[in-house]
Records
---
Amino acid sequence: MTTNSDRFEGSCHCESVRFTIAETPKWLTDCNCSLCRRLGTLWAHVNIDSVTIDAAKDATISYIQGDKTLAVHSCKICGSTTHWENLDPGESAQMAVNFRLCSTADIGKFDIRKFDGADTWAFID
């Protein structure tokens, strides 16, 4: 779902969690870390201020692991992973939404960069 080139929308499968991004990501990130490869996510990293999450306060469950800097959110009803939030946001802080929950047409507008989150912590494309 999208309304124009500067605004992207997505939702979990049951549509209990919806998001709108009012920023065009530079690219989408396909990470191979132990979590992302299991979740099958395709991350759009954007400024926190450009994302609106439309969901009830208790609509997601969060998973915090490792260095405890990110909370990965999934819908409590359908299980779709929707976004991650920065637990220590500063000025110009980033977050990411799972762009696989957007339309395939919107996904096709972006380069997909491979990120080696498993070993080198660097882009490998």
Note: Residues 8-112 form a domain with the Metal Binding Protein, Guanine Nucleotide Exchange Factor; Chain A fold (CATH 2.170.150.70).
---
Amino acid sequence: MTGTRETTFDAAARAAESDAADPLARFRDAFAEHADVVSYLDGNSLGRPLTATGPRLAAFVEQKWGGRLIRGWDEEWMDAPTRVGDRIGTVALGAAPGQTVVADSTSVLLYKLIRFALDARPGRNTIVADVENFPTDRFVIEGIAAERGATIRWIRPDRTLGVTVEQVRDAVDADTAVVVVSEIAFKSGFIADIAGIAQVTHEAGALLLSDVCHSVGSIDVQLDATGVDLAVGCTYKYLNGGPGSPAFAYVAHRLQGEAAQPIQGWMGAADPFGMVEHYEPSSSIRQMLSGTPPILAMQPMLGMLDLIDEAGIAGVRAKSERLTAYVLDYADAVLAPLGVTVIGPRDAAVRGSHVTLEHPDFRRITGELWERGVIPDFRPPSGLRIGLSPLSTSFDEVRVGLDAVRELLG
């Protein structure tokens, strides 16, 4: 970066101008703040709570749980997994009703969906995945492969980007049952070409499972339009469901009933209250359920879904692009002279809502940043992820955090 760029970049003025022009600025008032936090840069790991979350939970405990008691199951709770699933599908997944259900953790649902995919493609024994995917995905795949005697074919993508269509085309063959890809790479923030990957996967006769944990609520996910077969995602990042909030599973209508998921429980049965002797799975998306659904834990995300619906996912995505562009410009002008490099895409079209910066001292200064109330996310060996949740994050908040990084490195 030239000396001219470094001297002309006014971080504070740029942040102030961006906040003043932000059409989504009013949504920041919906989120709880704390005096100990001056810059929250980890919204891609755990979203802030809404100010309405506490009262919503209190009202649920007092009125729905305390007042209705067991009657709540007949009145609304039995349908909650599919009702909330449909809401997520409509607002944030581009998924028609009847394909999304809120159930277990991401890990459990990954297990169910991959096992489902293997059984839906009998005679095929290979799982295609990439070595840069999140550990949960890789660990679950390894466990299933050992359990089923399946083969894993590992893609090794550029760590600064992610899995490409060409790499998937080279990896799939007549023995491939399922391809597992994260729509947004958790390290680099690279947005995969899911439509293209779905096409080459289907040409090989296999199924595509898309992990949308880092994309749901931050970009315009289009599961139906892109031809995704199966998907899994969490709700504690950009859906602000809170620590440990439940995950969701998507199974395209065309696949429902082709196979069975492996954890048979009464909630996924065709007639849960029939108390029949043998298990028969539901023919609907409810087949992905097993045990009692986490009704209480579903409540916090409902408010965030309303906000995303009001703001519009296109507006959320547009602000995400502006926020990450600000980080890149700041990094180039201010942090690059201090030895910081950007690991991830520059092109906004393939850049998710987080930017990963690298420096040998980032492990050391992360603790100091936290003590100052600046909270980014460190990823070994030397990555600092700047995770930006568009509805809750201001440009000046980002500027304050990056200024602290500059001070500690300087």
Note: The CA atoms of residues 24 and 353 lie 16 Å apart.
---
Amino acid sequence: MSARHVLDSYSVLAFLENEPGAEKVAELIKHARDKERPLLLSAVNWGEVYYIACRTAGKGAAEETMRTLDTLPIEVAPADREITRIAAEFKADKKMSYADCFAAALAKREKAELVTGDKEFKEVDGEIKIQWL
């Protein structure tokens, strides 16, 4: 388990809501904490988790969710020009949401393994490494 890992909103929400795949994400979080090597999450996917939490539970609960997320060994990576270019290239060629393209772009740039259960990522399977939940 030495490869770097990128989480998408699917994997974060699975963990936070104790849905299928939560145990695997919990294992990755523990490993990241033990090895002092944080998991990665695109700022765009961070925003996706926030807006989904706002929609489902309200702004107050969403703020609490994000405070919980802040306690985890997860580094929020900015959507800089390079990541945005890679995401735009994925979006131009693949049938994926733009937010998902940012997770894939971060995994590609960092040569990391994307952790997800979102079948939309089958579009980039082979171009990036994917650990399916």
Note: Residues 4 and 111 are 8 Å apart (CA to CA).
